[in-house]
Amino acid sequence: MNAYQICLVALAVGINIAGGQIALLLKLPVYLDSIGTILTGALLGPWFGMLPNLISGIFMGMTVDIYSLYFAPVGMITGIMSGLVFRKLSVKRVKVLAAAAMITVPGTVVSSIINAVLFGGVTSSGSSILVQLLSHTPLGLTGSIFAVQFLTDYLDRCIAVFVVSVFVTMLSGEMKQRLTGSVHNRA
Length: 187
Hints:
Layout (H helix, E strand, L loop, with lengths): L2 H24 L8 H10 L1 H18 L2 H5 L1 H17 L7 H24 L7 H8 L5 H31 L2 H8 L7
Helix pairs in contact: 1-2, 1-3, 2-3, 2-5, 2-8, 3-5, 5-6, 6-8, 7-8
């Protein structure tokens, strides 16, 4: 792990925390706490992709939002999936909707189970309002948790994948090489 990678992981943690706090403050039905995770996964691969959400989930869970701690495994899955997806797809030709779907599905299954089993659909997120509204339909509580979780996760990942793909295409080739460790400083 080089200094550039450590700094990228730290930056990603900050992006996750800032995005998550904005979403909580505004009670948005998206989370915005995975942009840094997806960025790290896209640039450094699946194993590094797990780190930002693990760190930010622990930090936020112990300071401002206890739910972040419980959902940290979802972010770790998102980091792994983003590393795998961006490894297979060229960033310049990334299809945002398809990439977001591939990144979303595994984490959404875990997220829905956590939400249904531990919290009954009520968390700090703005999506809890949608769950409660839909729970009075034929979907019931469990069906509404899965439906809302998939829709909000997918929208969140579409936003994150778009932002990350724009950012990554703007990075210079030299910076990408430094992040991957293939170029070293000669000081």
